[in-house]
Amino acid sequence: MGGGHSVSGVADHPSSLSSRQEETTATTIATKGNEGVGGEGRGAGAEGEEKPLYEIESLCMVCGEQGMTRMMLTSIPYFKEVIVSSFFCEHCSARNNEVQSAGTIRDFGLVYTIKVLTNADLNRQLVKSQYCTVTVPEFELTIPPSKGQLTTIEGLLKNVMDDLAPEQPLRRIQSPAAYEKIQSILDRLKDILPDYDSDNEEDGDGDGDGDSGEKEKKRKEDKKDPERAVPPFTLKLEDPSGNSFVEFLGSMADPRWNMREYHRTKEDNVLLGLVSQDEAPVQEQEGGVIGGGPPTIGDLPSASQELSAEGTTVPDMDEIFVFPGSCSSCSRPLDTKMKRVVIPYFKEIIIMSTNCEACGYRDNEVKSSGAMSERGKRITLKVEDTDDLSRDILKSDTCGLSIPEIDLVLSAGTLGGRFTTIEGILDQVYDELSGKLFSSGDAATKEENATFEDFLSRLKDVKAGNRPFTLILDDPLSNSYLQNLYAPDPDPNMVIELYDRTKEQDDDLGISDMKLEGYEQDEGDEIPAGHSLETLKEEPEAEPLS
User: Fold this and answer.
1) Residue 99 carries which DSSP code?
2) pLDDT tens figures, 155-173
3) CA distances from 487 to 205, 345, 418, 454, 490 (A)
């Protein structure tokens, strides 16, 4: 399982190239690589032939002598072309390596989520750009954006241990709390990479007894076994430039691999150099509260109101209401923002958004407003292509969702209220279910995990639009909605049925216990003068005279 090597960026290596020369060189390499022509290399287009390699003399910033920078354009399967560069000074042995994207910045950011369970997962190839943030939630470990890397998941973890371990003796004296925290991370990483200590001790005296030889032999055998289980953890890569990548096994239906696109924020665009820091913030579109977090108070529209014909105030539909509260995760104060939105051909809804700046907790929910419907609604949609996946969907907290083709059934209340697209809600279902599977540990058998992985693969095919399916929304309160692409004409792929609720549904929703008329105060329930409700409860009823 080769421990991947760290690669750093061209801009950071000890070189005398100016930024303009670097850009010109990268452009030339990309152009010649596409044409299959190179100075020293032979055509890069034919399979089996070597890629063109370019060597440039560069100034070593360590010793001041001339070193050599080697650059090569290569292609990563299912990803894109990248430029791999390596600097070496033969005078002082200084080294520096890096990978850079040979293409343009994507129009969107990417988030990769990998569930690591076996040795095969540790061998996945990984490309991390200089803008990518890597997190391991189970370890509370975050690797901030740094130099680019072309490595494996195992190599990335070894680099983390190499960076943290040498300073531990000093931390133990200067900051015991930090030492304990980092040591706990290192101990958990050693459980995942048991051969790390052995690799580091290979340069020692080499003396060992028979027991250590047997352990070394067993360690190498385990290392060769791709199905050897490792302590499960989640690796997450978030790259606003979209130029990072993690290898999937087999196909994109890999149940342990997931990719999600997202729209960049203004801070992301500033980081990538697409906009300046002083540029005025772009006005959030309606509904943007759900996508990228709530706007600041200064960005909120004024609470303008107008008078109706009767002289009463009518609130503006553009008004955003702010309610103070506390975070359910860290208990610190935060604001919940609410906005009224009218969905065409449906009804008015309320969008609620909560974002904690202290711990990063974020939650969004949708509630329907207006009167309660007298009948339930069942919406059946035949999804035939990827265009149907972009339909807007409003799933209330009383709505059930099912896809018969893959045996998916979500009861009412699952995921709460959501206003998104069909693809978005399937992504949320996948994230919830995959988290339950890969966090179960030894509680589930291999057969159960294999069955669940097969189900996740089918769900992944569905949310990618690789197979047609039927989406059914069943809401006894008729508060759910699915976009009609042919509105106001009927949608040929959608069937809407209205039905009468059963008594069990009315009981579950609390409708049977509602008193809609004469609920003010019945004459027989009046409290006598000089008595309170508590005294009436305590006073026993008088027994009838015999």
Assistant:
1) E
2) 999 989 988 999 999 999 9
3) 78, 8, 22, 37, 6
